[in-house]
């Protein structure tokens, strides 16, 4: 029973930290745009990638076609 005198205030403190973290995130705009991050994975990034480099063998012979 004595452990409840410790656990109840600790639980209330953790709940207060969670609420404070949520309020801080809401005030700083963390939840303003909830749709764009989910759609960002559908954007095709291949056109921005540089073309692959040609590799040449180190022995001086041309590569067969």
Identify the notable features of this structure and list them briefly.
65 residues, mainly alpha, 2 helices, elongated
Can you walk through the features of this model?
Helices cover 43% and strands 0% of the residues. It is mostly helical.
Q: Based on CA inertia axes, which overall geometry fits?
A: elongated
According to DSSP, the number of beta strands is: 0
Instruction: List the uncertain runs.
Output: none
Tell me the structural class: mainly alpha
What is the helix/strand order? HH
Helix count, DSSP H or I runs of 4 or more residues: 2
Helix % is 40-55%
| Distance separating the two termini | 81 Å
Q: Give average pLDDT, whole number.
A: 83
What portion of the residues fall into strands of 2 or more residues? under 5%
Q: Give the biggest beta sheet.
A: none
Describe the structure concisely:
It contains two helices and no strands. The protein has 65 residues and is mainly α. It has a domain of 27 residues.
Please write out the topology.
Layout: H1 4-27, H2 36-39
């Amino acid at each position: 029973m004595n452990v409840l005198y410790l656990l109840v205030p600790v639980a209330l403190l953790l709940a207060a930290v969670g609420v404070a973290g949520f309020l801080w995130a809401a005030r700083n705009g963390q939840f303003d745009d909830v749709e764009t991050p989910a759609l960002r994975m559908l954007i095709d990034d291949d056109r921005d990638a540089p073309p692959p480099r040609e590799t040449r063998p180190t022995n001086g012979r041309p590569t067969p076609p």
